[in-house]
Design goal:
453 residues, alpha+beta, BirA Bifunctional Protein, domain 2, Rossmann fold, five-stranded mixed beta sheet, 24 strands
């Protein structure tokens, strides 16, 4: 069964090198984490799955990798500078600061239960920067709080470089930064995190159709690609829409503490391109936007058939990559009783998601023949280009099996004395612990078949 608590995942992540506390030797920093040898592999595999679904499996979406640091005007006209904030309150008794909208009871301190709570005040979520020799500490740029806005201001660049008819999209994966009041839930809410966002530009007449299509497409991806059971996912429509939105829904996963957001699908109307476009008065912009006298480019689309020039609507899909990884690990985490008081923890990831695709284990570390054969098998597997292959040479087969169970390695290949005699090795399967003898010549084909699952 999946993890009963996020603490199970926290312990596994530290023990097996998935995620570490950032700046740990100096006491850490709230909301900052470092991804270790297996964490970076799992994150990469999730990123690749999303990129494959958005870019390689379609012909109507282009990729982008925009800068992390942006001109202040970009965030002024997007509305972030004026309104991207959370309601902050403070307990007068214990000094705890909290987001009012996330408190269990807005009238009581989550920490000590006191009702002596200050009035809420706006807390700026963007991280400002002072760049340049003459800045003198004044904020003149920001670390981006999301990837979407940097996509909108590149709309014309992408369209000019790679012409498309509507509808088409621009996808981007990258870091974002928010000055969170109270980071929580391990990597669920952080100050530095990773987003996978796609902006799909449509004719305003077709917005509702594509909004529904992308809802279905993204939910299916979580089920079919990441392997999250359908009953663990749900749509939660936004009760209160953001000022730019016509419709919005969250895809939520059943974390151990309850359902929470892992991805959002939004109909943002023409707010974003309309906010950043030059000559706004030339277009019928439906959303309420700030007057823009600084933009140098018209972010519009010209329909070659009708001759109409208009601001497209945007359907957005926005996934938290860190949250996706957390959900995948929680769902894959399994504790099994083996009898005789023994048990094991196994991460039952889909094989192609596993950080290590296969481990080669010589039964004895001091036998040169076993090590030579193991090295040859390892090299043959590496040539397949399927991901990380590990050679374990500790000589303790039981501990090696348990370690690879915990990091989710789908198959281990054991090289023993019988291998020297008849050229066969043992394949040990993660989920069933079944062990099968196969010829060395068949190993690469067997492993390839496994990692395609």
């Amino acid at each position: 069964m999946p993890a009963k608590s996020v603490n199970d995942i926290v312990a596994l992540c530290k023990r097996r090198g998935f995620i570490f506390t950032g700046s740990e030797i100096y006491g850490g920093l709230g909301g900052a984490y470092d991804y270790g040898p297996y964490g970076v592999e799992l994150m990469k595999n999730i990123r690749n799955a999303w990129w494959n679904a958005m870019i390689y499996s379609r012909n109507d979406i282009e990729g982008l990798d925009a800068a992390l640091i942006s001109n202040r005007l970009l965030w002024k006209y997007s509305g972030h500078e004026a309104s991207f904030s959370d309601p902050l309150v403070e307990c007068k008794k214990c000094g705890t600061r909290m987001r009012q909208d996330k408190m269990k009871d807005p009238t009581k301190c989550d920490n000590c239960g006191s009702t002596e709570i200050t009035e809420p005040r706006a807390y700026q979520l963007m991280m400002g920067l002072s760049i340049g020799a003459m800045a003198d500490g004044a904020i003149n740029a920001y670390l981006r709080p999301e990837t979407a806005t940097t996509t909108y201001v590149n709309f014309k660049n992408v369209l000019d470089a790679k012409p498309h008819k509507l509808p088409f999209g621009i996808a981007q994966i990258g870091k974002a930064f928010r000055n969170e009041i109270s980071p929580r839930g391990f990597v669920f809410r952080m100050r530095e995190f990773e987003q996978a966002e796609m902006q799909y530009f449509v004719n305003p007449a077709d917005d509702e159709k594509y909004f529904e299509q992308w809802k279905a497409t993204r939910l299916a991806w979580w089920i079919d690609v990441l392997g999250i059971p359908a009953e663990k996912l749900r749509f939660l429509p936004h009760e209160k829409l953001a000022h730019y939105a016509k419709a919005a829904v969250d895809i939520e996963y059943a974390f151990p503490d309850g359902f929470d957001e892992v991805e959002g699908v939004h109909n943002r109307q023409d707010f974003d391109l309309g906010s950043h476009t030059k000559s706004q008065d030339e277009f019928k912009i439906h959303a309420k936007v700030l007057e823009n006298k600084d933009s140098t480019t018209k972010l519009s689309y010209s329909d070659a058939q009708t001759g109409e020039n208009f601001i497209p609507y945007v359907i957005e899909t926005a996934m938290g990559v860190n949250r996706a990884m957390l959900a995948v690990m929680i769902e894959a985490y399994t504790e099994e009783e083996l009898g005789d008081g023994k048990s094991r923890v196994v991460l039952k990831l889909k094989p192609w998601l596993a950080p290590v695709k296969a481990a080669v284990i010589p039964l004895a570390r001091n036998v040169p023949e076993l090590l030579e054969i193991s090295n040859n098998i390892e090299n043959d597997l590496r040539k397949l280009g399927i991901g990380r292959i590990e050679l374990e040479n500790s000589g303790n087969i039981g501990k090696n099996y348990r370690r690879h169970d915990e990091i989710g390695t789908p198959v281990c290949i054991t090289v023993d004395h019988q291998t020297i005699e008849d050229g066969t090795v043992t394949l040990r399967y993660r989920d069933t612990m079944e062990q099968v003898r196969v010829p060395i010549a068949d190993v690469t084909t067997k492993v390839l078949d496994i990692v395609k699952q």
